[in-house]
Amino acid sequence: MDAIILQILNGLDKGSAYALIALGLTLIFGTLGVVNFAHGALFMIGAFVAVTLQRIFNLSFEQIDPTKKDFLGNPLKVEVPYVEAWFGADVGDWLIDWSVPLAIIFAIPVMLLVGFVMERGLIKHFYKRPHADQILVTFGLAIVLQELIKYFFGANPIQTGAPDAFSGSMDFGVLLGFDPNVIIYPYWRLVYFLFAAIVIGAVFSFLQFTTFGMVVRAGMADRETVGLLGINIDKRFTLMFGLAAAVAGMAGVMYTPILAPNYHMGMDFLVLSFVVVVVGGMGSLPGAVAAGFLLGVLQSFASMNEIKSLIPGIDQVIIYLVAIIILLTRPRGLMGRAGVMEE
């Protein structure tokens, strides 16, 4: 039982990332009808916003420290971060330690701008083009963004730590009545799951309970009729593209302590997340979220040594096998809508 619970927890944190990226993909497809293969790159950009902020907070200058001396008794030069010099040692240390969560504040406007530029500068020209054209151009854009990140940040993964308060692990099993040290799980992975739940809940609430969201949902169902009512639905859809970019960026920011950012992480997550979207049903927001968590948990169980000893390599293909089975039995996916990508 403890192994099962541990794999469910592992699956939930993987599923959280899949669900957040798939949610943004589905928002873009549902509103604009665009298959955006550059969405994984937005996840990557968010991760490197966190890396950039951490580097900024760690910028330092040399200063002589009379309390520290070398073997000859001469005062040593030490590196002092600018944030410590400007705000004091306590505040400076706090800013450096909490750079990842604080990066969300900067990631939101950055990702909204990136999404706006991407949609206005490129995507809008492919609204009425075949989906194959959309896939090719956005995939090409993803490669360009990937190479830019590689040029500026290098090819090696960049370690980005969680705040000290969440850097350890908790005895999760004790909360469930197990013996101590049976189910040990990292704090930050639990934080990521809670973060994903909050973001997903906020997006659904925004679409369900705000006037803006209701107009967007109406436009997703019947764009022409909403336009005839005098509502500038194109402007609202552009804002939704920015929102989808912000969701992907925030997901990338918070995932950096779990997976060290690298230039190809966007592609790694994009392929899996697109499978999630297809399994959930093209254009279905609840389907994307449900499929994200479902496939994350299944992938986690498939990675168990007991399973891999029986079926070698199953952890690498389980998502695709499940996708094949679901699409053979339900061609529209778990919650797909009639007429979506069926023309």
Automatic annotation (TrEMBL):
One GO molecular-function entry: transmembrane transporter activity
What is the protein named?
Answer: Branched-chain amino acid ABC transporter, permease protein
> What is the annotated localization of this protein?
Cell membrane
Q: What organism is recorded for this protein?
A: Maritimibacter alkaliphilus HTCC2654
**GO BP annotations, alphabetical order:** amino acid transport
Annotated transmembrane regions: 16-35, 42-61, 102-123, 190-216, 237-258, 270-298, 310-328
Record family assignment: Belongs to the binding-protein-dependent transport system permease family. LivHM subfamily.
Q: Which InterPro entries match?
A: ABC_transp_permease, BCAA_transport_permease
| Keywords per UniProt | Amino-acid transport, Cell membrane, Membrane, Transmembrane, Transmembrane helix, Transport
Determine the domain of life of the protein's source: Bacteria
Concerning CDD domains, the annotation shows: TM_PBP1_LivH_like (cd06582)
Q: Name one GO cellular component term.
A: plasma membrane
Q: Which Pfam families match?
A: BPD_transp_2
